[in-house]
Fold this sequence. Notes:
Layout: H1 2-31, E1 55-61, E2 65-66, E3 71-80, E4 86-87, E5 99-104, E6 124-126, E7 129-131, E8 136-137, E9 142-150, E10 156-166, E11 170-171, E12 176-182, E13 200-202, H2 204-208, E14 211-216, E15 221-226, E16 229-235, E17 248-251, E18 254-260, E19 268-276, E20 280-284, E21 287-289, E22 295-297, E23 312-314, H3 316-325, E24 331-335
Parallel strand pairs: 2-12, 14-24, 20-23
Antiparallel strand pairs: 1-3, 3-9, 4-8, 5-7, 5-10, 6-7, 10-11, 10-12, 10-13, 14-15, 15-16, 17-24, 18-19, 19-20, 21-22
Amino acid sequence: MKKLLSYLGILQALCGGLFSSTVMAETAFSQSFETPQPSHCRYTYPEGTLPFYAYEFLGTRKMQVTQPGELGRVTIYIKNTGTAPMFSDNSGCALRPVTRLGTARYRDRESLLYTKLSDGDSGWQSPNRIKLDQARLNPGEEGSFTFWMKTPTEEGIYHEYFDVVIEGKKWLNNDFAVPFDVGKFVHENRNYLSFILESRRVTQEELIGERNIEVDISDQKMYLKIGDIVIRTFPVSTGTYRTPTPYGYTHIFQKQEVRIGSKWPYYIMPKWMHFRAGGYGIHSLPSIRYGNGSYWREALNHIGTRRSHGCIRLLPADAEFAYNFAPIGTAVWVHE
Length: 336
């Protein structure tokens, strides 16, 4: 019995020591994160408010035209439309996620405008990140990202997409484009830039060519072009072998937001663009309204195959883009 009590005493001593060591380790661990924070790092959310991040792009301030290899200063303005504050690299708030402007379309690519300054801060945190100017940007406030750029050596419009990123948490998925003009340039058709959906250099030839549509029956592809330059490529569904889509050169002579077929089953065809007499059009996937008010939508897997009665069908988002791209008079070439 004495031996048993002796063993229990030893075990209790060991457990107590282990417990004390654990408490001390946890205390030291927690203390290591108790970094003194500036007062502006503290933020109290209004009662019932959940934190989320969002922003609105407001505009830019920059030189209208620069020369190849020239340095220029740029400021991009945003508004914090979320409920959570945004903190900069220079906030001193080590426990808060940093907000930066990141390169988009495609994300995290190195910007052709990135530069370092030998005698100061360029505003870039890295070749694909720009720092927030304000130490803290509260919900509802307007802020900015200021940086120096060095223009590339080739003339053109450098169409750059950006998006705000909360480092270590999320991209805010609200990207926007900013054009940077380098050298002498034609500006008559600057609205063409809205069809450039990625960050890249836009040449003068892309802004002076005529818009046109090419449809390759063999590949079941549509090409939206400016001159000979392809802006977008979409999969399509053209006519079957029994009801083929006519080949040849035509043009769009009528547009309707929605067209209803004149015969049963009265197809509903959004984003209609009439390109050949006889009822041939380019449009979004058709649907049918049944007597009970429900809709039938043509199967998505028909896209890329010959399934129509001669029209050229597109996915809804692609049809909307093509509709906005092609005004009346746009040339259409269908071939195999």
